[in-house]
């Protein structure tokens, strides 16, 4: 056990690409936690997907032994945080486990919205911030400008900003000294009942759920009975240990210490991020504050393209959920797409990651419906129901009103794009804006916006209208009543459930028109005219017609052609096999996929 | 009641089915002055080695290849296709025809047909070809609109085409056929109507009218990929229907998707191929069908000449067609004919399938006296794909 006075717990807050993983690697190397030979790039990011995307999905922690310039031995616990807006709750729990944070910013780019949002979060949690400018070795580096921006945001003195190159190792020693000098040591009562914060967990096939904990008060001992206070689940502390970075068992952990806990519990649901671990022998009177149930924000139907794969999809989702309690799903049937699941995600990135893992790791071919949010339908009889799928929206006659989730959005943009960003957010139904100049060149804008607009295509539009310079962050806000309608798409007078969408009344016509035009392009001509209609209730708001096919015959088929022409027709026939029948209309799988892609709507 | 002395109508089912018993031979003459942008046949231009010397060697090789085929016959139909058969001197055509006669025999009333380009078809040449024994000529007219001819890369003028047709009739070819191509992106409906009127005004015995098709690997395909307009299927459908109507008014009867004839003037060689008949094939890239095997020759001239020189058959590959695949093939070929095909096991399976029911309901197919016919020839492949999708019976 290490005396808490010699412990420093900290996170690194950084934007994607600003060099967090490289800096972590350098700290591991410099403190000797990992020998150079063991070093591989981005050691902390373990999943393949994380490596490829250069982002961290699951938090992780590592213990760095460090002898300071004063000759004292310290333990530095680097607690990794997910770097994306979808996981802001997880970020807040990781930050809660720390006393300080390094705010890492690329010397050539400056601060981004997500980084700033997380920095504000850290300040709110009472963390001490060390501003760090990375990549000072780059020719485009402008550390002085970026330092001014940082001080403008955080306050403090220019001398507080540490300049490093994680790549070359420049400035790393200064940084390590700043960590022990400027970050406070953890405080906690070693004699109080045990309270340890669960800030991450994962499922291991052999060990069951492994959780990462930060001891706040008391003493966590191997073999003790423990209780997870939010879920009430009890077990024995089979093993406790620290990551250095290989798992190293220890006998106990006192206040301020960070490590892992294995209890033999197999269900990830029983151990949740943000929960408090206490000892059953002497339970704490109250848990640590801040625990929240995981709450899905974005929903999408996932359907296997091959109907036979439904069971495989179920098994794959079950396996993913072992490691990801924020993923929720329930079986759903679509007339157009068959059997599948309505899945709930923390956000768009989370959705994309799950989908990609299903396709890659489980070799599934999926059609995903357009993402939607959770609406609240207030019925005329006074009750309220949650609507996660457009199909679940009750008939207009029974609806008193519909509420939709709003989020608080923060956008940072170069000031030259303020006009265009304001135009965009207004088009996306933003309300109550305000803005702050971070520097004369960079502006921070705040709005409340419907989450549905963000999941639609907001991020892509923001990027394209600001040449990629603007950045975005959002956090959950409140529900507000909106004038919403469900737009249905009818093919040959038959509603295709997979294409239904809940949209704002003012946008229904444009949405309907865009969809019918797109479907007319995507669906091949049939033997008869096929009307494609968009409808709100029984009112048709847009219509196109897929004209009947008139010519489908090879001009020539002679003695010399027979085998070749047959093969050509066989290939065409194979294409036909991948069609889904919607009533009498053959719809190619690709039409579903393309029509449901939101990015180019 | 049909008069027994009159020839049967071109779309007669009996005629179509009986054609399966005919014995025929195809000879491929690959040489062309230039390659037309839409053509994907085995073709050799002068630039690609089609020199007079090579032509002579090629003719000798074809004759040698004829000598390699097991005896058969006598032949009921012989077809010289290309390429451009009319690019050969009459003596060369005669030498090949003579080799066929010696090896297999040729029936006295046989159809002996040649494809010819109008620019080759001067009086002297046409008469020489007729005197050798050719009974039928199929003229590559394509269009009577000079702009369309240029777009198609053809070398003749409309006037030359008119005189080629008249000359063939005057010389006394038993059947004179005109080949047309419609639906070139530049061709207006008026242009096509004019071409049709001119064609039918010449009173041909037979017309083959093809929609311009973008075949992979052709110059046309490259141009379309580069952004040139592709043929429009609706425009082609309009033009097809216009031709069908005008041809019927002129007494031509459609007997296959793209072929019309007066009674007594169907192309027997082609009719036989659509009835799964057997035919020998000689020359570059030629395809034959004998004893249930479909075989194809190599498509490269040097390889062809080399193989034959070493007394080897210049075969590139062969497929035995049997069982359900042969049954599907019988039906898919038969459905291209106006007279349709005996339903048989594949037809019965089609009619029992959901697709078959859909086609019947939509009036796309009809069943009469045990035969299935496609009523809208423009949608034939819709039915054919359903035939190919039928599970083995």
Count every helix of chain A, treating DSSP H or I runs of 4 or more residues as helices.
Answer: 13
pLDDT < 50 stretches of chain A: 49-59
Terminus-to-terminus distance of chain A:
58 Å
Biggest chain-to-chain interface with counts: A-B, 26 and 46 residues
Characterization of this structure:
- The complex is a heterodimer of chains A (601) and B (393).
- Chain A is α+β, with helices and mostly antiparallel strands.
- Chain A folds into five domains: 4-182, P-loop containing nucleotide triphosphate hydrolases (Rossmann fold, 3-Layer(aba) Sandwich), CATH 3.40.50; 195-279, Translation factors (Elongation Factor Tu (Ef-tu), domain 3); 298-369, Elongation Factor G (Translational Gtpase), domain 3 (Alpha-Beta Plaits), CATH 3.30.70.870; 376-482, 2-Layer Sandwich (Alpha-Beta Plaits), CATH 3.30.70.240; 485-596, 2-Layer Sandwich (Alpha-Beta Plaits), CATH 3.30.70.2570.
- In chain A, the strands form seven sheets. Chain A has an eight-stranded antiparallel β-sheet. Chain A has a six-stranded mixed β-sheet with strand order 2-3-1-4-5-6, sandwiched between helices.
- The longest helix of chain A has 18 residues, at 505-522.
- Chain A starts with 6 loop residues before the first strand and ends in a 5-residue tail after the last helix.
- By secondary structure, chain B is of the alpha/beta class.
- Chain B has two domains: 13-274, Aldolase class I (TIM Barrel), CATH 3.20.20; 323-388, no CATH class.
- Helix content of chain B is 40%, strand content 21%.
- Chain B is built from 15 helices and 15 strands.
- Chain B has helices spanning 13-18, 52-68, 90-104, 123-132, 146-151, 158-171, 189-201, 219-225, 233-249, 268-274, 301-309, 323-334, 344-352, 354-361, 380-388, and strands spanning 23-29, 75-82, 106-116, 136-142, 175-182, 206-211, 253-256, 259-261, 278-282, 287-290, 293-297, 315-320, 341-342, 365-368, 371-374.
- In chain B, the strands form three sheets. Chain B has a nine-stranded mixed β-sheet, sandwiched between helices. A three-stranded antiparallel β-sheet of chain B has the order 10-11-12, with no helix packed on it. Chain B has a three-stranded antiparallel β-sheet with strand order 13-15-14.
- In chain B, β2 (75-82), α3 and β3 form a beta-alpha-beta unit.
- Chain B is globular, with a radius of gyration of 21 Å.
- Classes of the chains: A alpha+beta (601), B alpha/beta (393).
- Chains A and B meet through α12 of A and α9, α10, β10, α12 and α15 of B.
